[in-house]
Each structure stands twice: as structure tokens, then as C-alpha cells.
Amino acid sequence: MIDRHSDELVWKQLANSLRQQIESGEITRTLPAERYLRETYKVSASTVSKAMGLLAEEGLIVRLTGLGTFVKDPARHRKTE
């Protein structure tokens, strides 16, 4: 979850959490709605937007207006042990 006492910015913590969930296979295709993320992580809309923007810049996700946010290439991003 989010550590509000951490030196790391909240939106980066959220991005890291989502990235880890994608890499572990916990999120395999569709990311939760932004509203769900705001309520679950107790963060603002701008925090969610910045986190999603970073993941999109990294090529991890793709945001399709009116359709949702998706893992860009699920098999490529899943870490295997």
C-alpha cells in the first residue's frame, strides 16, 4: 500500500505497486478503474493520473479513452522465477 511517511512520492509508490502487480501476474489484462484506485489507495485523481502516466510512458500499459486501461503486452511484462 501507500506509505505516507516515505520519502518516495505517493504517485511513484502507486506506480510501483501497480507495476509489481502486473509483473507478478496479479493484474493480467485490465487495470482497475481510476475511481477504484482512488478509493482503494485513498489518493487523489491527480495521483492516479500521474502513476498511470508513468506506466504508460514506460510502455507497460495503454490507456484507451472510453474503454479502460490495459496491460500492453501481459506475457512480456510477467516476471518468471
UniProtKB/TrEMBL annotation:
Classification via PROSITE patterns: HTH_GNTR (PS50949)
GO terms classed as biological process: negative regulation of DNA-templated transcription
Pfam families: GntR
Cross-referenced InterPro entries: Bact_HTH_transcr_reg, Tscrpt_reg_HTH_GntR, WH-like_DNA-bd_sf, WH_DNA-bd_sf
Start and end residues of each HTH gntR-type domain: 8-74
Domain of life the protein comes from: Bacteria
CDD domains cross-referenced by the UniProt entry: WHTH_GntR
Keywords from the UniProt entry: DNA-binding, Transcription, Transcription regulation
Gene3D superfamilies: Winged helix-like DNA-binding domain superfamily/Winged helix DNA-binding domain
GO MF assignments: DNA binding; DNA-binding transcription factor activity
Name of the protein described by the UniProt record: GntR family transcriptional regulator
Gene source species: Phytoactinopolyspora alkaliphila
Lineage, broadest ranks: Bacteria, Bacillati, Actinomycetota, Actinomycetes, Jiangellales
